[in-house]
Amino acid sequence: MSIQKITKTVERQVEEIVSITCDKCLKVVNYPDDPNDHSEWEGFVHINFTGGYGSIFGDMSTVSANICQHCMEEFFLTFPNGIPFTQRGMDLFFGHIEGEKTDEKTDEKTDQA
Ligand SMILES: [Zn+2]
């Protein structure tokens, strides 16, 4: 038995984001053709949430913003404990996380009826 495939050629319109503007500093970052520029593009944070009942932003109001990594850093540096980040990603990449043993198997048992 052979599988038959019937195909057709279609044209589709695809919308791509080609630039992002930071809503705080108004810096514009274009989608990078140069891979060395990727960090600015990838570093953007998009915040989007809806205010709930009693929210200072207004009940059911949508708050949405694009923030560049530099403005995020500036914001985090206002925190009393500094930037709330971990090195977890890099530690996982290099295979060492202090206090965690990833090669141990847990001996958890679940009760099954
Ligand atoms: Zn910015």
Write structural notes for this entry.
With 113 residues, this protein is α+β, with helices and mostly antiparallel strands. The protein has one domain (19-103). It is 18% helix and 16% strand. It has three helices and four strands. The strands form two sheets. A two-stranded antiparallel ribbon has the order 1-2. A hairpin with a 6-residue loop joins strand 1 (19-21) and strand 2 (28-30). The longest helix is centred in the middle third of the chain and has 8 residues, at 69-76. The radius of gyration is 23 Å and the shape is extended. The structure holds zinc ion. The site of zinc ion has 7 residues, from helix 2.
Domain count? 1
Q: Order of strands across the biggest sheet?
A: 1-2
Beta content comes to 15-25%
Bound molecules: zinc ion
| Average pLDDT level | 82
What structural category do the secondary elements indicate?
A: alpha+beta
Low-confidence segments, given as residue ranges, are none
Helix-strand pattern: EEHEEHH
What is the molecular shape?
Answer: extended
Terminus-to-terminus distance = 46 Å
By DSSP, the count of extended strands is: 4
Tally of helical runs: 3
Rg, Å, rounded? 23 Å
Task: Name the features.
two-stranded antiparallel sheet; 16% strand; binds zinc ion; 113 residues; alpha+beta
Secondary-structure topology with pairs:
Blueprint: E1 19-21, E2 28-30, H1 38-42, E3 45-50, E4 62-67, H2 69-76, H3 88-94
Antiparallel strand pairs: 1-2, 3-4
The structure holds zinc ion.
